[in-house]
């Protein structure tokens, strides 16, 4: 399960402070030292850990704890609030254009789960919001990627726009938009090309598509299992494309937590969805508070 090590350690740590009728500075010092080590071990970004600990320390030796009738529990509440804030605070909504279709560009490195997530998102939009999506195969470099999206379209019984491997991705995106308008479809999900590594050509192409279709959302799909690499990828994509949100995939695996806890703080972009498995219904809206509760027990 995800975050298992982190959850165990944090729960152990807060257990010690929980029942305390008085919380001394020494108690806070010991607790934050353990929390710091647990976060670093979970592969959370170093600077993120530093700021997080500073916030907790300031609040835990402050008035809200001193004046509380149950100081131990008050400290735990502070840790939970800060952990929630670290993951973005509120859960975020998905855009809906004033004049449909709403255009969503899916971007990310190959293997992160971009195509699968495109299918999952389409499924969610239909199921939860009663929307009609069009899937767009704009990864013209890999015939397998086009096939994969077409297969997903069949499984979901949803339209897919593709134009083979000779077409230009910008044209494909424009044509797909026209088709969606004609057929009164309300979401256009563009599955863009991924590469094994970030490169200039990939970014240029994504920027061109962005400039042409003015997407309402750009979702960056990253693999939670890759820890700080996922955070670095998010930073680069965000610098170039100003993404609107992140989808963290493979949270069903035994990821340590580094990506989930660092991405918002490093990129200032929220994690909007979490991939919880390979199946098409295994995409969840990311709830920072619920995630914090899961970690802290
Ligand atoms: P792309 O190259 O980024 O389009 O990646 P794919 O969509 O082809 O996914 C790569 C692999 O990751 C596939 O085997 C997917 O089934 C798998 N995958 C995607 N999302 C998840 C997830 O949330 N959990 C798990 N366990 N596997 C996932």
Automatic annotation (TrEMBL):
It catalyses: GTP + H2O = GDP + phosphate + H(+). Its main location: cytoplasm. Residues 270-283 form the SRP54-type proteins GTP-binding domain. GTP binds at residues 108-115, 191-195, 249-252. The keyword Zinc-finger does not apply. Keywords: Cytoplasm, GTP-binding, Hydrolase, Nucleotide-binding, Ribonucleoprotein, RNA-binding, Signal recognition particle. Composed of three domains: the N-terminal N domain, which is responsible for interactions with the ribosome, the central G domain, which binds GTP, and the C-terminal M domain, which binds the RNA and the signal sequence of the RNC. Part of the signal recognition particle protein translocation system, which is composed of SRP and FtsY. Belongs to the GTP-binding SRP family. SRP54 subfamily. This is Signal recognition particle protein. The lineage of its organism: Bacteria, Bacillati, Bacillota, Bacilli, Bacillales. The gene is ffh. The chain holds residues 1 to 297 of 453 of the full protein.
């Amino acid at each position: 399960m995800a975050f298992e090590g982190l959850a165990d350690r944090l729960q152990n740590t807060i257990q010690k402070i929980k029942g305390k009728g008085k919380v001394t500075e020494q108690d806070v010092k010991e607790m934050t030292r353990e929390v710091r080590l647990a976060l670093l071990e979970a592969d959370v970004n170093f600077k993120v850990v530093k700021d997080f600990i500073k916030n907790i320390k300031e609040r835990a030796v402050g008035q809200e704890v001193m004046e509380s009738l149950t100081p131990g529990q008050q400290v735990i509440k502070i840790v939970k609030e800060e952990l929630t804030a670290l993951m973005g605070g509120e859960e975020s909504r998905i855009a809906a254009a004033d004049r449909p279709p709403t255009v969503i560009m899916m971007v990310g490195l190959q293997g992160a789960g971009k195509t699968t997530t495109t299918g999952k998102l389409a499924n969610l939009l239909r199921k939860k919001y009663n929307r009609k999506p069009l899937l767009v195969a704009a990864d013209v470099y890999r015939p397998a990627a086009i096939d994969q999206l077409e297969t997903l379209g069949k499984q979901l019984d949803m339209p897919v726009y593709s134009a083979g491997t000779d077409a230009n991705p910008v044209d494909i995106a424009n044509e797909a938009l026209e088709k969606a308008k004609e057929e009164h479809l309300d979401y256009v999900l563009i599955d863009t090309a991924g590469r094994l590594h970030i490169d200039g050509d990939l970014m240029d192409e994504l920027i061109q598509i962005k400039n042409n279709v003015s997407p309402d959302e750009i979702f960056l799909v990253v693999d939670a299992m890759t820890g700080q690499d996922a955070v670095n990828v998010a930073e680069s994509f965000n610098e170039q494309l100003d993404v609107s949100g992140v989808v963290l995939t493979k949270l069903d695996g035994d990821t340590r937590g580094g990506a989930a806890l660092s991405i918002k703080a490093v990129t200032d972009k929220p994690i909007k969805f979490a991939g919880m498995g390979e199946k098409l219904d295994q995409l969840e809206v990311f709830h920072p508070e619920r995630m914090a509760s899961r970690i802290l027990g």
